[in-house]
Amino acid sequence: MKLIFYKYQGAGNDFILVDNRTEQINHHNPQLISQLCDRRFGIGGDGMMFLQNAEGYDFEMVYYNADGQPSSMCGNGGRCIVAFAKYMGVIDSETNFLAVDGPHYAKISASGNWVSLQMINVDTVNRDADAYVINTGSPHYVQLTSGLKHKNVYAEGYAIRNNPTYLAKGINVNFVEPLDNGYFVRTFERGVEDETFACGTGVTAVALAMAQENKQTGHISTPVKVLGGKLNINFNYDGVKFTDIFLEGPAEKVFEGEIEVEIDADYTAETQTV
Question: Annotated catalytic, 80?
Answer without folding.
Answer: no
